[in-house]
Amino acid sequence: DESLEILLDMVATPHFTEESVMREKDIIAQEIKMTEDQPSDAIYYGLMDALYENNGHRIRVAGTVESISGITAETLRRAHSVFYNLRNMALFVCGNVTPESVMAVADAVLNEAEDAPFETERKPEPETVVHKRFYREMQVSKPLFCIGVKDTDISPDPRERMKKQCVMDIVNDVLFSRSSVFRNELYESGLISSAMSYGFTHCLEVSHNILSGESSDPEAVYEKYCAYMEKIKTDGIDPAAFERCRRVLYANCVSSFDDAQEICHNMMDTILDGEEPFDEPHIIASLTVEEANRVLRSVFRDEATAMAVIAPLTENKEETV
Fold first, then answer.
1. Does residue 150 contact residue 208 with C-beta atoms inside 8 Å?
2. How far apart are CA 223 and CA 136, in angstroms?
3. DSSP-derived 3-state class of residue 178
4. Run of H or E residues at 258
5. Cβ-contact 132, 28 below 8 angstroms
6. How far is CA 301 from its chain centroid?
7. Which residues are CB-neighbours of 318 under 8 A, at least 6 positions away?
8. Are 286 and 163 in contact (CB under 8 A)?
9. d(CA 224, CA 190)
10. 141 Cβ contact list (under 8 Å, min separation 6)
11. pLDDT, tens digit, for every residue of 258-306?
């Protein structure tokens, strides 16, 4: 109870002074400069720049040294009153607690708040990418690649968004997991190392699919990727592989309810996106290979695909973008 009270008080009752803001801006400026030197950050935001023209997801969360320079204590107070408003927040607690004890602490610390409406400007995002390539040289031992597909078909219905996320999770496992034909062909030909990651991000604000790894020849990987996707879109997903991956996703979803921390994260993610947390197992159980093929063909489009590459520094050459 005492720890929860401290946490809620920290969120609900901030303390901003000009001195503390100035001190923190110096710290954040150093952190921004450090992340700009990280290849993993550079390739991710390079890909976002290539994919998106208007979506705010292309902007670094921490901003830039220039963008934080004008922040004052009053800026933070205004932002807190709007975005940390209790009507815009949710609390989820998982563990050896009772609803009554949590509510007692919340009622003691949190006061009723007036609604603080705000408007978000969303410009329409083109279906095509801004650039097909992003290239930068940095201090890496081997080229890094990140292939991204921009998806602009985002349903306003939370259940439909959850369904599409589940479908694409299965599709990605079928296409790019360690047991996939594509991944094994790349590995056996020496085009990639054993590590290759993939994932689909899908919510009301943004949607894209990313495949990343290391390769001595990223362009060769991209060519094979495009040929592979065209073949899969023509032939369709193997029903047996789909069913195997669907069962794995269902098992992982059910087993996630054994972990308190994972429950908290999953519940909060779904609640903030307007979804019903307990719908997911039922959605996964109902999915079909026909749905997977339909979503695959709508998402993986050549005109919506781009690649970012971080290459080793050439001899006697500074970093370039």
1. yes
2. 20
3. coil
4. none
5. no
6. 20
7. none
8. no
9. 13
10. 312
11. 999 999 998 898 888 888 888 999 999 999 999 999 999 999 999 999 9
